[in-house]
Design brief:
By secondary structure, the protein is an alpha/beta fold. β5 (102-104) and β6 form a beta hairpin. The radius of gyration is 35 Å and the shape is globular. 48% of the residues are buried.
């Protein structure tokens, strides 16, 4: 028996399964069923535990290595004796390897399993391979008549340390196979690496797909460039993909390392030296290379091309044109830019979402977490991923952008610091991450040196743009970059091409599919690096000021668009730039720019309200208003102060339900607006101040203020806002039980919103009008209006409105006597409010407090709580579907 943390693994898979499925799609399911039955029977007979079925094979674990060997032999005997029909026999290769592993939720993790998979990949159908670790455990525990045939030391395709490989042989089992499919079986100069290769399964599969194309493919598919920022593991990925494709290049896979070459003229001769080709003064290195390669099927890896990009491009183009079976795989921080180049961008390692962390046992499935854990174990053997440190490891990986080199440098500190200490010190990551291997390239020894390498290759204009872009938070648009970063040595017309250059050099990430316009962003590591250069250039204040000016203008432009047909577009635009807007507000306060500090919250109050940031909006408004309360006011400053007060008061009464704060701020805003004789601000203040009176059930006073506001909007010719005020008047009338009058005002508002394309207020008016029909006993009309409001809220991504609609459907059920259904829907509405951290707006909150107690009293606490729990357990989609079911 093995020690507690040691296991023996038996891995299997079917040789040529893809071809079999393509040839016999109808017969293979039955064949695979028989295969699974025979394997399971053999494994379980010998006390093996199958922990994963991979479709064309199984992964099993044993506590006794002799039992693993016996299971493999029985499986091969049974497979060879079975009748297979038209598919012919399924030839299964097997590998046995022993070592430590971590166990989580019935699955196994760690380098031992990676090694077993590589050993399996070296074999052939019908063959049983055994690692050296497993062979030692088998020495005195071999099954009867079995023996181990020594195949010698082999380099498996993980490019890690060599493995001494044995073949398990027994009577009546085949024992003659071709040379193992290992690195040393094919001509190559691939290096032996000291650390395991982790993850990148999708990327390797994509590269192999391109490399394995037949020799008659056109030049267009024979040049592959791996592009990515420094430290993303382009070199390791290219080497691993090449190792796994060796059998497709019978005349060799050859690595050309260019990192230490500084003279472009040496690229061709360095490549020739890899093939041991002598120089000839009468011939160019390029002609020597083309003559040697000729029609050979060869793969050449040009590694680290970015500092020699033109020379590499010329050589690749010439060789590919002259050598029809040559493939070239390059790694670079920017493409070569020649015809026929296939560009594969190398992303960061997969990472969990910090906002929705999966269970601890699933974190190890993310590449970044696996890399950190394994590299930490190499310097601190007792290190393990545990429930206590899992979330912190995930945070470290996330803050390092999933960059493999950065993660490896951080993990190297695990022998000196706890994970919590590493995470804390990442605030100054360029000091912490300075412990790379002394034998690695100099730029790979520290994170600072890694990015310095890329920075040194930039033009002066690119360096200026790189550092100025660090002023943004969470990304930027081209227009923002042009406005904020130009001037003082950088012409606005240059920004597009310079930005494209930074994207091509993998220093900036372009997101072209996530919003209505292309956005750009830094990885956090590059952001910190670039901001350091911005500080050194003494440009922070100038850039912050231009950034502030741009985002004040964006917020005020967006404010006017949030009530019209483009409102969804503008809500999303402001959402995606919310971090920049926050940064602008912080800078306005820090730099004592009172006007900007007040204009921003005044312009953003409706965005904050709709997207659920009302608590943040109220607090930011309060800070700005208090900071500059005593400042003598120009007309412009007074307008900004009035608007900030009105916006904060609106959020305080509609969402935060703080009557006292709302009244104070709205009254102050109204007084300032009257002093300025700003009719639009007067009407805005009156609209929202009316709801302070609504909250106090002072409906007559509220109605008077709203009628005054309505008259102003009509004088201004603003039908859209007049419609909003009419809907608000409908609220006062509805709550005052004047249903017929309320209906008339709601319909007037609804028509105005349809005309203006104001979908947000259309959701409000349809829901409110639905309540009138509900109270009048017109349930079908109420259902139709509630459904329209719900669908609009879903489109607008307004979760607050979705919750209000679920409440409306609950009240519809209540009025129809469907009490259990009503309680379920109230529970679903509460679920939405909690899930999205939002709250009901004032009128819906009043209705909640009015009808819910009636429902609870009628049903009784126990029944009510049970139905409520059913609704609370629904997903959003389930709740929406349930609400719209016809009763």
């Amino acid at each position: 028996m093995l020690p507690d943390d040691q296991y023996t693994f038996l891995f299997t898979d079917i040789e040529g399964s893809t071809r079999l499925w393509e040839s016999y799609p109808k017969e293979m399911p039955a064949a695979l069923t028989q295969h699974d039955r025979l394997l399971r029977q053999a494994l379980e007979t010998h006390h093996g535990s199958i922990f994963k079925n991979i479709g064309d094979g199984m992964l099993a674990v044993f506590q006794d290595t002799g039992q693993a060997a016996a299971a493999a032999m029985q499986a091969q005997y049974d497979l060879s004796a079975a009748p297979w029909g038209i598919t012919g026999p399924l030839h299964v290769r097997m590998a046995i390897h022993s070592g430590p592993a971590q166990v989580r939720q019935g699955d196994y993790f760690g380098p031992t399993l990676n090694r077993a998979a590589r050993l399996l990949a070296a074999g052939y159908g019908g063959q049983i391979l055994v690692s050296q670790a497993a062979s030692r455990l088998l020495e005195s525990h071999l099954p009867p008549k079995a023996a181990l045939h020594d195949l010698g030391e082999k380099r498996l395709k993980d490019l890690n340390r060599p493995e001494h490989v044995y073949q398990l042989v027994a009577p009546d089992l085949p024992d003659q196979f071709p040379l193992l499919k290992t690195v040393d079986a094919y001509p190559n100069n691939l290096p032996c690496l000291l650390t395991s290769f982790i993850g990148r399964e999708k990327e390797i599969a994509n590269i192999k797909r391109l490399l394995e194309k037949t020799h008659d493919r056109q030049h267009a598919e024979r040049l592959i460039t791996l592009v990515g920022t420094g430290g993303t593991g382009k070199t390791r990925l290219s080497l691993q993909a090449a190792a796994e494709s060796l059998e497709y290049f019978p005349e060799g896979v050859w690595l050309v390392e260019l990192a230490s070459i500084s003279d472009p003229a040496l690229v061709a001769s360095t490549t020739a030296s890899v093939f041991s080709l002598n120089q000839d003064p009468r011939r160019s290195p390029e002609s020597i290379l083309t003559a040697h390669i000729g029609t050979k099927r060869i793969l050449v890896i040009l590694d680290n091309c970015e500092h020699l990009i033109d020379a590499c491009a010329r050589l690749a183009d010439e060789l590919l044109r002259a050598c029809p079976q040559l493939y070239i795989l390059t790694s670079s921080r920017e493409p070569l830019g020649i015809p026929g180049e296939t560009i594969l961008y190398v992303p960061s390692l997969s990472m969990p979402d910090l906002h929705q962390l999966p269970p601890d046992h699933l974190l190890a499935e993310y590449e970044a977490v696996r890399l950190f854990t394994e590299r930490a174990q190499s310097v601190h053997p007792g290190f393990h991923l545990t429930p206590e440190n899992a979330a912190v490891i995930a945070q470290v990986c996330y803050r390092l952008d999933g960059i493999p080199l950065a993660i490896e440098l951080a993990a190297a500190r695990a022998n000196l610091l706890t994970v919590e200490q590493i995470n804390e010190r990442l605030k100054d990551r360029f000091r912490l991450l300075t412990v790379g291997s002394r034998v690695s390239l100099p730029r790979h020894q520290t994170l600072q040196a890694l990015i310095d390498w890329s920075y040194d290759l930039l033009s002066e204009a690119e360096r200026i743009l790189l550092r100025r872009l660090a002023v943004f938070a969470g990304g930027w648009t081209l227009e923002a970059a042009e406005r904020v970063c130009s001037g003082q040595g950088l012409d606005q017309a240059e920004v597009l091409e310079l930005l494209a250059g930074l994207v091509n050099k993998s220093l900036v990430v372009a997101d072209v599919e996530k919003s209505s316009q292309a956005r750009y962003r830094y990885l956090e590591t590059i952001q910190q690096y670039a901001f350091g250069h911005l500080l050194a250039a003494n440009e922070v204040e100038d850039c912050r000021n231009r950034h502030l000016e741009y985002y004040v203008e964006l917020a005020e432009t967006g404010e006017g668009e949030l009530y019209g047909p483009n409102q969804l577009l503008w809500f999303d635009l402001l959402e995606v730039d919310h971090d920049n807007l926050r940064l602008a507000m912080d800078w306005a306060l820090e730099s004592e720019q009172a006007l900007a500090a007040l204009r921003l919250p005044g312009a953003l109050h409706y965005f904050w309200f709709v997207r659920g940031y009302f608590y943040e909006g109220v607090e930011r408004s309060r800070i700005a208003l208090e900071r500059f309360a005593a400042l003598p006011g120009t007309r412009q400053l007074s307008q900004a102060r009035a608007k900030a007060n009105i916006g904060a008061g609106f959020m305080a009464i509609w969402s935060v339900h703080d009557e006292i704060r709302a009244e104070r701020q709205l009254v102050e805003g109204l007084e300032l607006a009257r002093e300025l004789d700003d009719q639009r601000l007067i009407a805005l203040a009156l609209d929202f101040l009316a709801f302070v009176h609504v909250a106090r059930q002072e409906y007559h006073q509220a109605g008077l203020q709203l009628l005054e506001s309505l008259e102003i909007y009509r004088l201004l010719g603003d039908d859209n806002h007049a419609g909003r005020t009419q809907a608000f008047i409908g609220d006062t009338l509805y709550l005052d039980e004047r249903l017929v009058e309320a209906k008339r005002y709601y319909e007037a508002g609804l028509n105005a919103f349809r005309e203006a394309g104001n979908a947000n207020y259309l959701t409000y008016a349809t829901r409110r009008l639905g309540y009138v029909h509900l109270r009048l006993g017109e349930y079908d009309q109420a259902r139709e209006l509630f459904s329209e409001s719900l669908q609009l809220n879903l489109v607008l991504k307004e979760q607050q409105g979705v919750a209000s609609c679920l409440e409306a459907f609950a009240n519809l059920a209540l009025f129809r006597g469907e009490l259990d259904r009503a309680a379920i829907l109230y529970g679903a509405a509460e679920m939405v409010l909690d899930t999205y951290h939002t709250t009901l707006i004032l009128v819906d909150n009043i209705l909640w407090d009015r009808y819910l107690p009636q429902l609870r009293q009628t049903l009784g606490d126990e029944v009510f709580e049970g139905s409520w729990a059913v609704g609370y357990a629904l997903t959003l989609d389930q709740a929406v579907a349930f609400a719209q079911e016809t009763g």
